[in-house]
Amino acid sequence: MGDVGEVVRWLQLNAPRGGPDELSQLVARAAPAINASEIVIYLADYTQSLLVPLLGSGLVRAEQSVETTLAGRAFTTLDIQRAPDNPDRIWVPLLLGCERMGVLEIVSPEAATETMDSPAWEVAVNVAQILVNRRLYGDVVERMRRRLPMQVAAEIVWGLLPPLTFATDDLVITAILEPCYDVGGDIFDYALNDDVLSVGLFDTCGHGIKASTIASLVVSAYRNARRSGLDLVDTAISIDRWVRSEHPNFFATGLLAELDRRTGRLSMINAGHPGAMLLRDGKAIRELPGPTALPLGLGHLSPRRPRVHVEDLHPGDRILGYTDGITDARSADGEQFGLDRLVDFVNRALNDQLPSPETMRRLVRAVVGYQDDTLEDDATALFVEWRPPHLPLAHLRDLAANRS
Fold first, then answer.
1. Which end of the chain has less neighbouring CB within 10 Å, N or C?
2. How many other β-carbons are positioned within 10 Å of the β-carbon of residue 97?
3. What residue numbers bound the domain in which 171 lies?
């Protein structure tokens, strides 16, 4: 086994010298340094149902199904996978933090033993970082991830979204959005500033370019208010005024939330949106209070300021937010997917102890399949998990007192 540190340094030094199209060749050239004959990058497509090879000259590979292959199992479980009947090959999750980008295929005579695992992880993390840093300078990564033409409305929304998954030692946030190639009205955003995680989930009325234009305004107004230091109520008011000013005959529903990661205190405004679910101990226990404000753009119809609901979370609690495209999806006989089916799905996923990103992926795939792969509305879901490694003793006493 060669010096993995030298491989990492070599990749970091040489990646900026070429374009994104050359990444696959660059990574392949690093293979001999870790006693591998081949290293191949596979990227998850937008639906997260296929892993698509990013190939250099001379390599031939097929797409890998996320559902039925070892490569897919590495992607869904976030663990290295190796086949007993093919000991020279391993599949390594391609992660940046908790953001799943795809997998690496590494072919090596040492792949059958765990001595390859540590260097494989280190190379995979480095490759993920290079992909993120270099993909904006060309279109190869975007082209490889697209299995269908993307509509302009979807191009607008995807260009505004943050990474689908973000995690720290005490927080996880992950989201999913469908239909990938023709979305328009759903959008979300989040930001961690000091000890406060801010989250916004929005659903604008309409479809196509008009909906994506309103979504762009909503998320931009949300970011502007947040970055200007406005509190949750004034943030909602600011978005409301911008929507009414620029699109007076339209509106957007939304969830705006702030989570204090020190204490677990969740503050939330529900602006005409479906209620979020509180998940605890492997099951959905209740729906958080419904609308506490009018939809964004309609605030002038009420003299009341938006009301903030406050919830003190338990360690390990999760909040599931979703748009009505999830619950309103209909089967061939017209039956809605509905809240009960959503709760049942989430309970089973939690009991299976799936990673949060995989729970989101399976949920949206279930909704798409329920509607025969043709969604009539955007379907978006978002998980926030609070998992503090420890809490101050005084806060534990306060929690115990509040629950007694």
1. C
2. 12
3. 152-403
Give the predicted TM-score (pTM) of the model: 0.87
How many whole angstroms separate alpha carbon 104 and alpha carbon 92? 5
Enter the tokens of residue 353: 């102890």
Encode pLDDT of 161-178 as tens digits: 999 999 999 999 999 998
Q: Is there a single domain that holds both residue 47 and residue 86?
A: yes
Instruction: State the Cα–Cα distance between residues 94 and 54, nearest whole angstrom.
Output: 13
pLDDT at residue 394, as a whole number: 44
Do 282 and 254 lie in one domain? The reply is yes
- Cis ω on the peptide bond leading into residue 179 (within 30° of 0)? yes
Nearest residue to 189 via CA among 168, 171, 206, 175: 175
Closest CA to 87 of 123, 111, 114, 56: 111
pLDDT tens digits for 231-276? Answer: 999 999 999 999 999 999 899 999 999 999 999 999 999 999 998 9
318 and 191 share one domain: yes
User: Among the three residues 86, 114, 145, which one is the final residue of a domain in this structure?
Assistant: 145
| Same domain for 138 and 156 | no
> In this structure, what are the phi and psi dihedrals at residue 44, rounded to the nearest 5 degrees?
-70, 135
Segment 62-117, tens digit of pLDDT: 999 999 999 999 999 999 999 888 889 999 999 987 789 999 999 999 888 888 89
**Close Cβ partners of 316 (under 8 Å, ≥ 6 residues apart):** 280, 281, 385, 386, 387
Instruction: Supply the DSSP symbol for 229.
Output: T
Stretch (H or E) spanning 344: helix 338-351
pLDDT digits (tens, 9 = 90+) for 329-369: 888 888 888 888 888 888 888 788 888 888 888 888 888 88
Q: What is the DSSP string of 312-343?
A: EPPTT-EEEEE-HHHHT-B-TTS-B-HHHHHH
